[in-house]
Structures are given as C-alpha cells and as structure tokens.
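Per reviewer request, we include the raw input and output of the structure prediction for the construct analysed in the revised manuscript.
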Amino acid sequence: MSERAKAKVESGDDLQESSLSNVPSMAELAYTDSLTGMANRRRLEDVINALILDRADDPAPFSVGILDLDGFKPINDLFGHAAGDNILKQIARRLNSCMPEGALAARLGGDEFAFVLPMVFNDRSAMMIGEAIRDLVSAPFDLGDRIVQLSGSLGFAIHPFGGDDFPLLMNSADTALYRSKKNGRSQVTIYSTAVEKEMKRVTQIEQALRQAIVAGEVNPHFQPIVNISDSKVVGFEALARWSDPELGPIGPDIFVPIAEERGFVASLSESLLTQAATTALQWPEDIFLSFNLSPMELLDPLTGDYILKVIRKVGLPPNRLELEITETAIIRDPKTADKIVTQLRAEGIGISLDDFGVGQSSLGRLRNFEFDKLKIDRSFIASIEYENSSVHIVKAIIDMCSGLNLNVVAEGIENPNQVEVLSGLGCQSGQGYFYGKAMSAEKTLPFLEK
C-alpha cells in the first residue's frame, strides 16, 4: 500500500485486529456497527478511498458490492424487532465468514450491507461471489422457536469503470442493485453502461408518472366480464393505462412495479380507483367494478381504510366493488393480508383470487382465506381446445369451486371454441378479447347498450 493510502486509513486501518483491551476504543466504536459488530459505512468508505489512492498510478480494478435483503420488513413486523436483529447478526456472521482474504464486509444500515473486494477484477468473478453470497443469505435462519427464510438482491460496481471515487462507486452499485430488485429480486447485477441507461429510463418514467398521477393522466380502461351462458355483461375489470407525451405509451407491467418500488403505488391506486368508481356509477346497478390491488398494498394495514374512504366519497355501494388479489401478494405477509381482506369483506366488498393455477398456487390459500370468486389463469384457457390436461385442470378447478361456493371466471378467452368448452365444463363467467378489449370510460355505456 502506498504512503498516501496508509496515511488515509491510519486512524482505522487496524480495526479488524483484536483489541488489546476488552473495552473498545473510541476509534473502534466510530468504525463499528453497534448491532452486528461489523465495519460500518465510515470504515467502508475509508478502505475504498485507500484502495483508490493506492491504485491511482496504476488503476487496477477492484469490486464494490451492495446486498439488500428481500422480504425483511414483513418478517421484522411479523416476528418482532428482536427476531429481526437476530437475523441481521446471523447475516453478518455469514458475510464475514465468506469474504475472501483482504476483503471487507460492512453494514450500511437497516437491512443493507456492502463489501469491498480488492482482488475481484472482472464481471465474471464478481458474479460468482455475488451468487455465492445470495445462496448463503437464502439458507434458513434459526430463531430458536421458528425457522424463517428470505432472499437477497445484489449489485456490483467495478473500479474504475463504475466510478473513480466512493460516491460514484456506491451509486453505480446501487443502480445495479435496483435493477436486481426490479427484475424479480434474489438477483445479481453487475453495473454497466447498459444498466445505467436502463435505470435512467426508469427514473424518467418515475418522475413522469408522479406528475401524471397528480394531473389525472393515468386512467382506467375497462374490460368486460360476461356471463358465459348468455354473453350478458355482468361487470368490468379496471386496467390502468398511461401514455406520456414524451415517453409514449407505457404498460402497467412497467409503471406499476416502479410505483411499488419507489413507494407511491398507494397514490396511483387511489387515483385509479376514484376514477373507476366514478365511471361505475354510470352503469346499471347490477354491473360490478373489478379492481386490482397490488402486492405492496396488501402489506399496508391502512389499505382497507383508503379503499372504503374512496368508494364512500364517490358514492359507489360496496357490493358493486370486487377486488382482485394474487397469491403472490398474500404470501408476503399473510397476517396483514388477512386483516385487509376480512375488513373489506365485512363491508360487503367482494374478493377475487386472480391468476389461479400458476406461480405460488396453493389449495391451502382457499382454506385460510375467504374469497368470493376465483379467476382461472389465461395460460390454461389458451390451450383448452387441444390439450386434455388443461381441460382436466380447468374442470377440477370448477368442480372444486362449486363445492366451496365460489364463482369462477375464465381469463383470456379469445375464440368461440374456448367458450364452448368452458360452457360444457360449467364455467360461469369469462373475459378476454372474444368479448371485448379494454375500453375507455366513455365507451363503456355505448358498449352496454349495444
């Protein structure tokens, strides 16, 4: 290490060594995370700055990584802060045990950790150690009276390509981390110019979306839900649509996750529900409104209150509103989700289980949660004409729902042959392009009249 680097970290460079006293010095306390005993952000910054100085004349690469725990908050809320602290301490021990020689792991705060890897020079090596850390984090945690599991997302930046100072390197690693979380969590991403470009567009979308929500420019469109036996419209599902003057049309599969990640999905949802409920008042009283709740909303205990507030303000009777939720949303925090569902059903609002048959589908969910309706995922309907296995699965779902007094809706119906098969199986309701695409609020009344 150069003289400049030694001078830079002289006050804290030996903090990893055993103290001569059992009483930590002021310097040690300043460089140590009080909960886990790991290095803290200040220590990490000094070590990275020392490496940058040391390699200034010959900038050999080194890697910086950030780890963020997925699903830590629900576990912390469900089992208490003591359990959460226990998990963080176990994470610290795991990270310290797997760091290569010369590397340093640190806790940045909350459930976020970081590490500097002086001997990791390229993307391939960073990816390998990132995947090893991810696997280490996903192993079960023993809390004494229970076992829990969570996952971790990671982002890496390699000096000097990801930045030539501490703030730039951390920002690049954080950009890569955000891409990992955006792509489904439990991912590892290495920073690159392509990642930077992608994330800049995400930021552009976020800023434009915030403004569009305030201006009322994100609007619900409505896809009809019909009675299969006579093709009569019984309801409409509200689907979010947005087109920005500069960015162009942006799908809900892009902008809804951004609103969730950046923490303003409740504002988006409230705006859409207000508009959709106002439109529903124009329909005949026997036509219901179906509205989707995002997974993040089922983590917020205040969700039920805001929904009731909106429909009371608009004047839509609760029995004309159905809320669609997915099993993926439920399993994040079953206790909070159950409270929200119970509160809303008590007011007369219907609850539909959406996309049944894929992902985390479990019959136990039908036993533990009270639903009014089940929507069969479109993947089964698409192949129901020519695939016997799909026919048997759909028939089994319909028969099961009959025994549970649940109504059934088939999603993604696109042709009359599918209608014929579903009708023969006793399916009550359906939606899809065969019956009508999502339409603007102004077109719903003419559609009903036609």
